[in-house]
Specification:
11 helices; 2 domains; alpha/beta; single chain; Rossmann fold; 38% helix; 5-stranded parallel beta sheet
Length: 280
């Protein structure tokens, strides 16, 4: 039987940098601290909801009855989209005639906490897994009208695949991921950390941009001194929540040391703890 890594303090003496937005950080910060880590919160993006007075938003929300399948790919999309319904005085029962799908447990929990049943959840918590589950359940045959509330620059894997199979897909961007203007933790401190966590491609891309800027600023003798980011982070384990995030890190020329096998915040914490204990 594998050891229970939630007991004891396997991360005692370790420093972990969390790059996800501040409003989402607790799901990583709290368990990491519980396991003994010193956590440095350095959000690289923030979430900005799209205004309800946007004409397209109102049209889509008022035509919910026409969709047979609604897919949520993040908890942020759930919060913003259901907030639209509340603001317009529409009941959550407006979703009852559609199959409601979620990419992973956090997104499903966000739905259920707001009183919306999640009918379909991806088995492996990634977009590709959701597509497989939808195909197995036969809930998106050709001609199905599908609505996907999402981030403005979200991956297009799900809508592209559904359109290819004949579904009629509407993607509704309900929020933007806005880049942070600066790092809240000195770059030199980040470079001395033991682990850095990444929960999306956008957190990775913005992190690289901010660190590169800090390195350029340090060319006059500071810690960055103009060195490549991969070299500056050579002593830090870069930790990814899943394959898509890992691909982004590699595209940036960075090495992924830890990838969560369960693509959730809890899975990422467990993977870091296992690495610290020499079990991964």
């Amino acid at each position: 039987m594998p050891p229970d890594l939630t007991r004891g303090r396997p991360l005692e003496g370790k420093t972990v940098v969390v790059t996800r937005p501040r409003v989402q950080a607790a799901s990583l910060v709290e368990p990491l601290r519980h396991l003994g880590a010193e956590v440095l919160l350095a959000p690289t993006i923030r979430i900005m909801p799209r205004a309800l007075d946007d004409e397209i938003v109102r049209v889509v929300v008022n035509e919910l009855a026409g969709y047979q399948l609604i897919i949520f790919t993040s908890a942020n999309a759930v919060e913003v989209f259901l907030g639209y319904l509340t603001e317009l005085g529409l009941p959550l029962a407006s979703l009852d005639d559609a199959v409601v799908a979620a990419v992973g447990p956090k997104t499903a929990s966000a739905l259920e906490e707001r009183g919306v049943a999640c009918d379909v959840m991806a088995g492996d918590f990634v977009a590709e897994g959701l597509l497989h589950t939808l195909e197995e359940r036969a809930v998106a045959p050709a001609g199905t009208r599908v609505l996907i509330p999402s981030a403005r620059l979200a991956r297009t894997v799900v809508p592209d695949a559904l359109r290819a199979s004949g579904a009629i897909v509407s993607v509704l961007p309900v929020y933007d991921t806005v880049p942070a203007k600066r790092l809240e933790v000195p770059a030199a401190r980040i470079e001395r950390a033991d682990f850095i966590t990444f929960t999306s491609g956008s957190t990775a891309r913005r992190f690289a941009g901010l660190m590169d800027a800090a390195g350029t600023a340090g060319t006059a003798g500071g810690p960055g001194a103009g060195r490549p980011l991969a070299e500056r982070l050579s002593g830090v384990a870069l930790c990814s929540i899943g394959p898509a995030t890992s691909d982004t890190l590699r595209e940036l020329g960075l090495t992924v040391a830890v990838e969560a096998s369960e693509h959730t915040a809890a899975g990422l914490v467990a993977a870091i703890a296992a690495t610290a204990c020499g079990l991964a």
